[in-house]
């Protein structure tokens, strides 16, 4: 290294500029090597020469020297770094030539910008700051002051936390500059103060803010002084965030006073006032909430401030509208001296911030903001109009949130109704904009219409006649910037035609179809893809219900749509998105209008078949085939049927899961429509490929495969032999799987029913599919050693389905056989369990009361045998009771009363009763008689205070009984909520939890009135009752948030209180050699945090985040079981309530650091090691979410924590967590069905 560096040093001093250039380039390459190292003398020489090169007459050499300087600072010793910085500062502050000062400023800025963190950065910035302060104070030189302020901005922005000792001096230096007469100095001083604000201590920040407020209160001789201090206040609020909130009580009235003074006519000051209000609401929404009644009127007043044009939209009479439009564009209104548009633009932005920050005040804000915004839709200034539209879009988004909140309050309902009534006025106002010349304004108008059609689709589509001319004008625009305008217009057309009320467009399709079809051939791929989507939506509007007749005038449009779609479908050299959209549009065209294209349809189907052979388009092609096959039109698919089936069958062997799923769905659709015409070879190939997919390896794919095979059996009974030979053994094996549930189980039951039914059809010839063969196979599978409890339950359901399909005689013989198996003295436990479960499943739909020995057999099984046999007997008794309530329900009730002294036996009988009530509640038609309902209610209320196991079953029974008899059960439960017994109160709350179904129910209105009383139990003296109440609140928030949304203001403080550690619930158990601490409140705290997690998803606008974050801080220090949900919740809050999290970020760092520093003991078992690893991963995910909060780096403790994490022992794990998150975010769109 010594010889090359020596040569470089020699050439750097050459008089030949080419030598100097090459030497500087070589030096840059050498410095970029991490192994660069040289002696002290050479370092000093290099530093001197690089400083000389900065002033080289050749611009290329000086540019390379700047790059070398940034690298050299990181390679040479500390002493030489100090010399470099001192030399550059000396040239900046004392240089006599302007070029010398400029070069020094560029060099210092490069050093600061490229400087990494750590000790070197600390050394440089601490050396630099005092000199920059001195430079700012050199009032005689504007260039030096400006350069010093620019450099100071760079330093404090990147390394503000490293110069804490200089913060006071910097503030004292910057504040006087706000009164400087030169605008450039004032602007730079504001930037420096805002960059420094996040790093200031509370005392220094308070001092700066108080200084600004005092200066604003003082009389100003120059208008720019007030503007500067108002700008500074806004910048400090944006930079300091929540820490500025404490000053809003003083700042807001002062700003409103300045902003609401129209006599001053200082438009720029009013603009800065509105920007300050915007910053207050954006960065400190919690503290600004109280001032909203004062802020909103001023903002609306400023939004209407237009001294040069009085425009009252309410005065419109509908005539002369176009003349008014022309008047608005006359040059007489273009006043270059009029800057009132800045006030209106700032007001629109502030209003958008208010709307987004206070979603819970939507009804009040909408009533006041909507008329004001509508009045400004005729704004003359383009930028203002776009911001007005953006504010209205924010209003519509909040309307969408309110609309999704089912069962909202009266105020929200009134706001929704008012929005519906305002749609015609909105559409009329936007239609005027769509006829203007401004492309940006028209694009913003379409963005607003898209938001409007998402919230109020039917009323928006009803106004389509008003919007048509604007849409056609946009689609026919030929200007250079028309692509984006067309894209917005097509997106609106597509969304409108796909929404409710799209039939309103049918009279206008003749005018709309040609430009949409023409747009499909646009070169810009996004426009072409969107046009194809619009064509597909148009096909559905032309014929929404096939095969309904199509009016003659709409039939003329079909060839145009076909020509546009077919041209894109045939083209190979185009973007993937366009290809997929063309395939989807062709499928929609064929499925809805194929009978109107008799000559073109074969070519269209042939093209779709060809797309199946291309790896890039095969998934889209498979979905297209499924859509065409599902069409209700009688389309001729004969030419492509066999080749398409062959391709689909081949896809079943591919590794791609989405492709297999789509292929199975397409096969089922094809078989359902054309199964009778399939050849034997195609059937065999399909069955052979589908059989291996029937397994518990992928239950979703298994369900699709079973559905396809069932459909094949229905359409081609002759396929029974192939299905029985290949698929049936797989189905039997699947029935034994402990994972079988949900849709896969339903598909399996339907498959067995279809196999038995189709095996008896003429020509089926499938001996292995007879009832006796199937029953024997299922009984053998159910008694096999590998069959567990869940597998036996599933197999019992399969047996019941077979019996139901076989008929009464076969059912009776099967029941008798099962009873014999149950009573056989040498029968195994597995055989008895399966017999009991099968009898119970059969008894659900058949009356088995005629079997006299059945009741005795069930009673014997309940009292004798293993616990698993008793549990099976309990389920069987409940199932049999469903078949004949009058015969078995009284027996169950009497047995429950008789077994009061035997909790175990009583528990089994209660489970049987629960089986009856839950099954009835799930059935839409079945009911208990009035006598039975009263008897059951009395019994359940009497047992509310029983042991915990029985009490939980009683609670579930009460909840489902209330769903059956809403008016008779809920009042007694309300009375029971005040019982003296804690067990009874806990049972009542748990019962309410069972009533909270995801789907609407008749009990919902009654629950809305009753739930406030139940929520008071969140603060019950008994911890079991509190836990049950918290879990009930979680269930309500998850399933029906509107039931509890209005109660949260009073409930949340009590819920937050449950997250705190209660020392009275911690007890110590003496275990001899050591003592063990047991925390009885642990589960309650965990449930409380999980409840808040659900509330964040369900009611984000109703939570008090600042109050909760204090409790979350304690949760992050709690037990492992509490930390895990807290980490998940913190990561979610980092997105939902980032401003509030940023406000508490400094206090969240210590518990996160402590968690990451946790180490397991040397003798820890594997389970403890795994738990600790899981906790570290969850903590790192939370840290990653926090690190992605905007301005998170402004919190110095958190930034130091991140820097230490990145360089510490957990760096690899942290990188893995970030990579996992990035992969998940990147994979999300790919996993969606975009076609």
From TrEMBL:
Hydrolase found in the keyword field: no
Entries under InterPro entries matching the protein: ARM-like, ARM-type_fold, CAND1/CAND2, TATA-bd_TIP120
Keyword Repeat among UniProt keywords: yes
Listed name of the protein: TATA-binding protein interacting (TIP20) domain-containing protein
Biological process per Gene Ontology, one example term: SCF complex assembly
Coiled-coil stretches noted in the UniProt entry, renumbered to this chain: none
Residue ranges occupied by any TATA-binding protein interacting (TIP20) domain in the UniProt entry: 1043-1202
Region (Disordered): 310-336
Domain of life of the source: Eukaryota
Protein species of origin: Elliptochloris bilobata
Family: Belongs to the CAND family.
SUPFAM superfamilies cross-referenced by the UniProt entry: ARM repeat
Record key words, sorted: Repeat, Ubl conjugation pathway
